[in-house]
């Protein structure tokens, strides 16, 4: 019996028992969808966060306070915050050929008003200096950035994100520029409008307002947990080793650390943050694959049960096929092919649904569509394995039926 006949007979059997086959295919598809969907989402989120961090550039690094973590990734000890005095002291004294930016996240729950229109209380207020946009690779759609004098003297001016233009100014940036808005009861003149960014790192720049650093200090400086951020952007990547060493030495002085004291801060580059993100998703990926295997084990049991029932129902048909000259190998191939067809159909449907579902979160975060070729291959391989494991015993049992006894079966 040639393979064309075997495949045709297996497909006819799947179509004849379409309801039973559809239920089994659905179980396999759901398991594969969950597996591929979660893994695709993790890949997409990692890529999206990587794109957000890459805005810092490969020639940049950030000085952050040190956080020691336990084996469970929970904070075990946290170093003192970076104060305004330390951050500005670093900016003034760091004489290397590089740009230094100091910023602070003042609030994530501000309400911004323009006339009678009010935003939801989820606007981020970020204090920045004159170098912030250039160092972070951010661009303005209209207007300008702050001058050094505006930052130092606390001018009541602001740069707003794209979403605020939509909510408060009917999506018309030309109307927003030069207008006055109110945030935290402070009247601010809009001098710049940021280009649309999309979401990333749990916060969207589109739902942010930027104010001069000194104004942010006046508003939020009483908070003892207020932590200032320092980012240094070198002219090229070759300068980074020397700059990071120089920055570490200067910041140790500013933190008043003795020679015997360990650093209570870290110098972090964007590529190292991405590596940490990928490392932290390893356990989650392993757990997802384990859950997917358990789900597919249930699907395999269901498929095997269906195939055993099919063998019982087709006992007489098997006897007729053997009487007409079909060999044991032919019968075995027919049933094994049927199990593989059901497994692969379920797998293809599950993979398509998994890719679609898994890309929802990354796209919502402003990322791009991810085609997970590796997880696609894993899904197909798992379905192939399910088909072989579930179909082998029923196929063997069908092939070993005695033809005379099979013909007598009612």
Report low-confidence residues grouped into runs of 5 or more: none
Portion in helices:
55-70%
User: What's the gyration radius in Å?
Assistant: 31 Å
> Per DSSP, what share of the residues sits in E-state strands of 2 or more residues?
15-25%
By DSSP (H or I, 4+ residues per run), the number of helices equals: 16
Number of DSSP strand runs: 16
Distance between the terminal alpha carbons, to the nearest Å?
Answer: 26 Å
Number of domains: 2
Cα shape: elongated
Structural class: alpha+beta
- The chain-level mean pLDDT equals 85
Largest sheet: 12 strands, mixed
Topology:
Blueprint: H1 3-16, H2 18-54, E1 60-65, E2 67-69, E3 75-78, H3 84-93, E4 98-110, E5 112-114, E6 117-118, E7 123-128, H4 132-135, E8 140-143, H5 148-153, E9 157-160, H6 162-168, H7 173-176, E10 180-183, E11 186-194, E12 199-200, E13 203-204, E14 208-212, H8 213-220, E15 228-234, H9 240-254, E16 265-269, H10 270-280, H11 282-313, H12 315-323, H13 328-358, H14 360-364, H15 373-399, H16 403-408
Parallel strand pairs: 7-14, 9-11
Antiparallel strand pairs: 1-15, 1-16, 2-3, 4-7, 4-15, 5-6, 5-10, 8-11, 9-14, 10-11, 12-13
Helix pairs in contact: 1-13, 2-10, 2-11, 2-13, 2-15, 3-9, 11-13, 11-15, 13-15
């Amino acid at each position: 019996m040639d393979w064309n006949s075997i495949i045709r007979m297996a497909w006819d059997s799947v179509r004849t028992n379409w309801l039973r086959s559809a239920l089994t295919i659905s179980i396999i598809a759901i398991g594969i969808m969950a597996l591929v969907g979660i893994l695709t989402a993790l890949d997409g989120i990692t890529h999206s966060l990587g794109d957000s961090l890459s805005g810092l550039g490969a020639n940049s690094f950030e000085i952050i306070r040190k956080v020691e973590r336990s084996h469970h990734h929970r904070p075990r000890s946290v170093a003192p915050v970076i104060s305004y005095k330390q951050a500005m002291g670093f900016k003034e004294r760091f004489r290397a050929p590089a740009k230094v930016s100091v910023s602070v996240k003042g609030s994530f729950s501000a309400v911004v008003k323009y006339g009678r229109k009010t935003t939801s209380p989820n606007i981020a207020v970020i204090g920045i200096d004159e170098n912030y946009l250039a160092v972070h690779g951010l661009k303005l759609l209209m207007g300008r950035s702050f001058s050094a004098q505006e930052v130092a003297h606390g001018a009541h001016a602001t740069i707003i994100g794209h979403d605020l233009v939509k909510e408060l100014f009917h999506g018309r940036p030309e109307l927003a520029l030069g207008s006055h808005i109110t945030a935290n009861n402070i009247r601010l003149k809009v001098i710049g409008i940021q280009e649309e960014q999309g979401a990333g790192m749990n916060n969207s720049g589109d739902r942010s307002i930027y104010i001069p650093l000194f104004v942010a200090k006046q508003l939020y400086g009483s908070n003892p947990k207020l932590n200032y951020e320092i980012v240094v952007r070198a002219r090229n990547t070759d300068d980074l080793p020397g700059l990071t060493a120089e920055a570490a030495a200067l910041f140790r002085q500013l933190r008043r650390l003795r020679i015997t004291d360990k650093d209570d801060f870290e110098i972090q580059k964007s590529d190292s943050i991405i590596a940490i993100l990928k490392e932290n998703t390893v356990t989650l990926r392993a757990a997802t694959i384990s859950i997917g295997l358990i789900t597919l084990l249930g699907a395999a049991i269901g498929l095997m049960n269906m195939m055993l029932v099919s063998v019982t129902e087709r006992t007489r048909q098997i006897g007729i096929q053997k009487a007409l000259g079909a060999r044991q190998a032919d019968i075995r191939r027919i049933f094994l092919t049927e199990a593989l067809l059901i497994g692969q159909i379920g797998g293809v449907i599950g993979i398509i649904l998994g890719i679609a579902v898994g890309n929802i979160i990354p796209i919502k975060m402003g990322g791009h569509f991810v085609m997970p070729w590796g997880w696609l291959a894993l899904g197909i391989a798992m379905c192939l394995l399910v088909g072989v494991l579930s179909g082998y015993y029923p196929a063997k049992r069908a092939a070993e039926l005695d033809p005379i006894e099979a013909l007598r079966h009612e």
